[in-house]
Amino acid sequence: MCAALLQLVEGASSRAVWNCLKIGTSTAREALKQFSRAVVKHFEAEYLRDPTAEELERIASEFERLGFSGCIGSLECAGWAWDSCPVGWQGNYTGASKKPTLRMEAVCDDYLYCWHLGFGIPGSKNDLNILYSSKLFQRIRSGAWPPVRPNSIISGMVFTWFYYLTDGIYPDSRVFVKTYKNPRNKKEKTFGKQQEAVRKGIERFFGVLLRRYRMLRQPCCLWYKEDVTDIMEACVIMYNMTVTERKAGYTGTRKARVAVTRRRLKMRAHLRTTSSYHRRSPSRWSNGFIRWRAR
Known about the structure:
Blueprint: H1 2-10, H2 17-21, H3 25-47, H4 53-65, E1 71-81, H5 90-93, E2 101-108, E3 114-122, H6 127-132, H7 135-142, E4 152-154, E5 157-159, E6 163-165, E7 176-177, H8 186-212, H9 225-246, H10 252-294
Parallel strand pairs: 1-6, 6-7
Antiparallel strand pairs: 1-2, 2-3, 4-5
């Protein structure tokens, strides 16, 4: 397990493990594979599953406080470079990055908890192609998901479906909320700023995930796609474990922004006070100096 965590967390190569644990390259790689399979086998059913009806209502209430009633997550796609991709597959797995890549689709809530992960998609597919082949949205189109229907009112309209925050590449659909491409007034600009601020949660999720598991920053050197998928799922499962344990002390997007705003207001008030003091002080000192010289 030490060899596996050393590779996952520190991003050490299987050869570098020898310097710390005196374990051979093949043994270190096998330890990584076995550890990832064990994590996925024992904890996938708890930490990487679809939310229940009660959990969906809780997620929707979190986004409602942020101003998006009926939202249950932010959607985004990312990729992991695959250096050991077989030569016969490289055409299908090479996309805009000009390197073989395994892409993934993820959905997370305001606490950065990832409740949906679809990994192993060829890198030649963009976000739209991934969406059309996504199992999650196939179930949404067939009506099998979600297990509960909301009843939210927005601007006098009753909404009976959940939606996701996305960027502009996704199609126009009632389950996707995007910003205005060409905002025409102040109201549309304010909505765009708020939507982008809340949707940043999914980008923060990818950033924190890569920060904690440095192996994901480097191109994957494993040969089999199944092993790469196990490693990615194991990293997300362990990440969700950490989020669950720290959720009681985590402030969330809304409270974090409130705290930052309060700090900014205090800093501005402090700067006003100090700047006004320094503006008055030279004149006061100069007048006193002139009076003293006059005497």
